[in-house]
Each structure stands twice: as C-alpha cells, then as structure tokens.
Specification:
alpha/beta; six-stranded mixed sheet; five-stranded mixed sheet; 21 helices
C-alpha cells in the first residue's frame, strides 16, 4: 500500500539506488537530512553577514579617533578642552587613552576628520604613571578592559573570511555539483538519469493489465525467473536477457513493464531513450555504463528502456557527417553491456518501441533482446476487460451496457479507453449526477475520438442545410449498403474540426477486410458529395477528407492489395521499409499510366453505384436531412423509422429549449430570484448559470 503522504515527486525522484546491505533503506527523497539548511539559504545568510560587517567597518572608520602624542593630550587637558561630562569620560585601555574634545576645539595640525575623538598610544607597563598624571590634572577617567584578540581578528579579518565563504558556496560548490563531485569537471553529465520504482512506490501488478493476455503469458516466465532463479539454473537453461515490447502507442507497454516489476517485487530502473543523448560527446555511453552498474548492484531488478528507437536506430544510416555519432556510441555501449551479463546477474532488460522496423539488427538478435512481445490493440473481449479495470473506482449506473461501449470502440487503445471512462466521470460530475450513465460514456467516446462537440458554434442556416444533406447522404448509403458497417448515429452538431459526423457501430472486430467491404467504404465516402450536389445544386469543400479517404482506399486496392485484374498480383506501392537513400526498382511510364487508369475506373464505378442509391432513395435523404435540421442528432433506431416512413415522436431542439426555459423560470420564481439582475433575458432560454441547455 503506497504511502498517501508521499508526493509524486518523492515517488519518482531517487538519484541513487538501494545498495546491498543498507537494510532496505535508500537515501531520503529530498537528498539531505531533515532540518539541514540548503546551500542557497546558507549563501544568502553569509551575504547578509558580509553586508552587516561592511556597514560596521564603515561606521567604525567614520567614528575613528585621531591619534595624538602624550604631550598634545596633556596640553588639551591643561587647557580644559576635554569633554569631561558623564557621557564623554576619558577611557584608559591597555594600549591607549581615548578622550572627546569639546565643540570648537581644533584638532592638532587642523587634521580633517568627522570625529572629535583623540587617542594616545601608551605602554601597558606605564599605565599607573599615566593615570597619576590624569589625577593630578583633575581629569576624571574610567578604566576599560580593552578589546579582546578575537574581536580584533573578527574586525580585521571577518570581511575577508565571509567573502571567501561566499565564493566557495556560490562558485566552487556550484562547479563541483555541475561536475558531478568526485567525477571531475562535467562528470555529472555522465550519470544516469533513471528513475527507480520500488514496491513502496508502485503497486501495479498483472491484475491491473487487461486486454493483452498473450503478452502477459509470455512475460510470466520472466517474472518466475526473478522470483526463483535457481529453478532455471537447475537444468542449465538461460533466461532471456532482454524483452522487446512492440506495439502501437497507448497499448500498455509501459504498464506491462511496471506490472512485471510489481509482480516480481523487484526494483524497476526506468529511463527514456532520449535521456541518454546529451550535447556532450560520450555522455550517452557513460550513462549506459552507470545505469547498468547500478542495476547490477541492485540485482535482481528490471531495466526499462522506454522508446528505445531514440538511440537504437539502424547504424550506417548515411546521414552521418563523418564525425562522432553520439547515438551510435550509445547503442554500442548498450550492446556491450547486454553482452556482459552472466546468467546469474538476475538483471532483465525490457525495452519498448512502436518502430521495431528501424532498430539495429545487432540490438534485436538472440542473446540481447531474445524475445519480441507484440502488444496489440485490444479486441472486443480485451476492451471489455480494460473498461472493467478502469471503471472499478467509478460509480456506474446499474443499467450501463459496457458490451455496447466495447463494441462501439474498435481500434481504441487502452489509453483511449481509460480516457473515455475518465471523461465520462468528469461529465457526470459537472452535471451533478449520482452515477455515470450510458449517455455520458457515449459522449466521452465521441469526444476522445472526434473531439469536443461545439454546441455553441453558430452555423449559418444555409451551411446547416448543406451539412444536413451531406450527412444524410452518408447515412442513407450506410443504411442501404449490405457490405457497409451498421449505422450508429448521425449528427450535425459540430465536433472537433468537422461540422457533422455519421458514426458506425461495427458488429465485430475485423482483422482482414474484403474487397467488397472496401468498395462499400468508398461508396459511403461519396454519399456526402452526391447528396449535397443533388439537393443544393452546388459543390463544397467539406468533402475534402472524404475524397482523400476514398482515394487512399482505391490506390491501396490497385497498388498494394493486388485486387486489380489489369495490374495483377504485384506490389507497386510505397515500401515503408526502404530508406530514402536506398535505390529501388523504378516504375515504367506504362505501368504508372495503367495504375492511374485503374484507380480512375474504380472511382468512377463506385461513384456511379453510390449515385444510383441516392437517386433511388431521394425521398429518404430529404426526410433524413429535414429531421437532422429539426432534431440535430438521430440514433440508428430513429433513422430506421424515417427510412420506413414512420414519424418521430421526439422533442425538437426548440421544444427542449422552451421546456428548459419554463423549468428555469419556475425554479427562479420559487427561489425569488430575478434573472434580469444578471443581465440575462428570460426569453433567451438560458438557465440561471448563463449556459445554453444541450439540445442533444
């Protein structure tokens, strides 16, 4: 159970790992004992002391006494020029006699000065003689013990000592810290910037990882080795030294590494690939050596290298300028350190990347990263499990259908699913709900994938009509095309960069897509342009994304998927594995023209098919567009009723606004509040918070 009093900074900051024999006690997170004054504070204190000392010295110099001879002093005493009142008596010290002259008495030799004091140096052995003369002259005096040697040293040498301390703390200590202490000048740059997580800092286990069962099973034996290494050494087997986690962003690679460390109850040394490379040459290799040295001292443990492609890219890229390549030297250091492991070191290296194709072959060969664990996008079963894991601490309505949400989130990563649950909880909280409802989850899903709905965006009526016909064309094609995915919802409420959207709800996850389904996707893309041109008589630039998507599918069908009879079963697309500087087979002009002709024919054929469907169901498109203008958002059931010619018994946007206005007026009247005091007219439909109610 983590300590609730520890902050996030305390959990993540640990410059030195735990050493063997320290009793499990590492250095304090703050890096200094409690109550110790920081270096900066001490420096300011010394600066204040120096300022006070200099002021005292200036004041002492301002009030310094003028030195006279004994004869001159006796002359002043005989003439009555000494101020012998109670406050200004003659002071007799061990080495001097000090007195104050009366106003108007000139100093000897007209010596310019700011003080009226005079001083006579004497010998300590003759003090009795001097005091007898003062008694004979009738000059009252008082003895003084004199200044101590320590006080004299502080007055004379104190400022120099304080200045030396200031130079030490502000200059030499800073240089030493920047240089890494015993490591010498700039030595700190060679220290590893890793973060070490222990069981006290992280309680993540495999139970918190869902949707990637195969990956969990594959790393299970690594966990077993860390728990019981002698079990594997009994038959002479060698556990994999490195595990490479490959997957799209947000699939749970970092979470899986933390779960491995938490399940095996071992420290986790976490560092990003970019933290190895610095502006100084050789720093990356030095940090690699320091990281692996500390890991071996803390074995058994796990080293997690996040985004390994930052330093593990294929060497000999051709971009080198001929000088020292820092990333290559860092990669060489990683290769050497991983080769230096013994079977008894009990140090496992885990790396993650979403670009395994650019990694150096020497890095992923057996003996270094022996295994590549693919962390895929979760399927519908995995999405269900992920949603359940993230909704454990969320108050959900009993009627929430998680299966419907999981089915409606194809190709969503685990991070996106977690964001859906969190956004739904935030939305329900802002609306003062007791539970998170299904509509909150639906809205959160659309927000995560398509962006926040812009319900307050003012769209001109002419543009609303164009958007309504556009989305109605998409929806009608999706409804009547048997090869298309089922329709889920259509809306003309702006969301993100789009002014409207038609959403589908796949019946199941598809790993492969047939040519018929690809052609259906192209026909749905054309529906918006065909409908808006048919009903408005003009064309608009809002179909740019649809054209781009349809063109991408058509080119892939011809050049990548081998689905064109004229081009044949050959790959003529862009090879992602080929580097820009590498040569390749050039395409002839005849082949390029053939590809263009095939793409054009494919687009023309599917466009004609889509246009025929829109013309056949012209009345349904008109009815759906008018319903969108009236209701703004329609579900599949409502679209289905419209397609069958049935009326909708649903409140319009104007009726919703009127009902909300009436409700607000009643609440305001009951509370005795006048909205006019807030500058909000009652007929605007705003509630007492000044917000327009959601028409959806």
């Amino acid at each position: 159970m983590p300590d609730p009093k520890k902050t996030k900074k305390d959990e993540q900051t640990d410059d030195a790992p735990k050493r063997k024999g320290d009793g499990g006690k590492g250095p304090s997170p703050a890096g200094k004992p409690p109550g110790m004054m920081s270096r900066t504070t001490l420096g300011w204190v010394l600066l204040g002391v120096l300022t006070v000392t200099l002021l005292l010295m200036m004041q002492s110099q301002f009030n310094a006494a003028t030195e006279v001879t004994w004869q001159q002093f006796v002359t002043y005493a005989e003439n009555g020029d000494l101020a012998n009142d109670n406050e200004n008596k003659v002071i007799v010290k061990n080495n001097s006699i000090t007195a104050e002259l009366k106003e108007g008495v000139a100093l000897p030799g007209d010596t310019p000065g700011t003080s009226r004091k005079i001083s006579v140096p004497i010998f300590r052995e003759n003090i009795d003689t001097y005091t007898k003369v003062l008694y004979r002259l009738g000059v009252p005096y008082q003895p003084s013990p004199g200044d101590s040697m320590l006080l004299l040293l502080l007055i004379n040498w104190g400022p120099f000592i304080v200045i030396a301390l200031l130079i030490y703390f502000f200059v030499f200590r800073s240089l030493r810290n920047a240089a890494g202490g015993p490591g010498g000048m700039l030595g700190n740059f060679g220290r590893s910037k890793h973060k070490m997580l222990n069981k006290e800092h992280s309680s993540v286990t495999l139970g918190d990882v869902a949707g990637i069962d195969e990956a969990k099973e594959e790393v299970g034996e690594i966990i077993e080795f860390l728990r019981n290494p002698k079990k594997f050494q009994r038959l002479g087997g060698r556990v994999p030294r490195g595990v490479l986690l490959v997957g799209q962003p947000g699939c749970g690679k970092t979470l899986l590494a933390k779960a491995m460390a938490g399940e095996a109850d071992v420290p986790l040394f976490s560092i990003s690939g970019r933290d190895f490379v610095e502006m100084f040459v050789g720093v990356g290799a030095s940090r690699v050596r320091d990281l692996f040295k500390q890991a071996k001292d803390s074995a058994p443990c796990i080293i997690f290298l996040d985004e390994i492609d930052a330093v593990g890219r294929r060497r000999g890229s051709g971009f080198s300028s001929g000088g020292h390549d820092e990333r290559e030297q860092t990669l060489n250091a990683i290769l050497v350190e991983m080769d230096g492991f013994d079977s008894s070191d009990q140090v496992i290296v885990i790396a993650s990347t979403n670009r395994a194709d650019v990694l150096d072959p020497a890095l992923i060969r057996p003996g270094r990263f022996d295994r590549q664990v693919h962390v895929p996008m979760p399927d519908i079963k995995g999405r269900m499990e992920i949603l359940k894991v993230h909704s454990r601490k969320i108050k959900m309505s009993p009627v929430v259908d998680m299966e419907k949400l999981a089915r409606g989130t194809p190709m969503f990563s685990g991070a996106e699913l977690e964001a859906i649950i969190n956004e739904a909880a935030i939305a329900a909280t802002l609306q003062n709900k007791d539970f998170v409802e299904q509509e909150d989850l639906e809205e959160a899903r659309d927000k995560v994938r398509y962006g926040r709905s812009r319900k307050s965006a003012k769209v001109e009526e002419e543009e609303r009509k164009v958007v309504a016909y556009h989305e109605a064309g998409h929806a009608v094609l999706m409804y009547y095309d048997d090869d298309s995915e089922p329709l889920h919802k259509v809306t003309i409420i702006p969301r993100g960069p789009s002014l409207g959207s038609t959403m589908m709800l796949p019946e199941k996850d598809r790993q492969i897509i047939s040519k018929r389904r690809l052609l259906a996707m192209m026909r749905v893309d054309y529906g918006g342009r065909i409908a808006e041109q048919m009903f408005t008589g003009d064309q608009y630039n809002g179909t740019a994304s649809d054209i781009r998507h349809a063109m991408h599918i058509a080119r892939a069908i011809v050049t990548e998927y081998g689905m064109s009879d004229a081009v044949g079963f050959q790959f003529l697309g862009d090879d992602e594995g080929r580097q820009p500087w590498q040569g390749g087979d050039s395409m002839s002009n005849e082949t390029a023209k053939l590809i263009d002709d095939e793409i054009k024919e494919l687009i023309d054929t599917t466009y004609a098919d889509a246009k025929a469907v829109i013309e056949k169901h012209r009345d349904q498109v008109e009815a759906l567009a008018q319903a969108l203008l009236k209701y703004e958002t329609l579900t599949f059931d409502e679209v289905d009723r419209l397609m069958k010619g049935q009326p909708l018994d649903k409140a319009t946007v104007a009726e919703l606004l009127q009902a909300e206005k009436n409700k607000t007026s009643k609440q305001t009247a009951a509370a005795g509040i006048d909205n006019s005091s807030k500058g909000l007219p009652r007929e605007t439909g705003f509630d007492d918070t000044g917000r327009l109610p959601s028409p959806a």
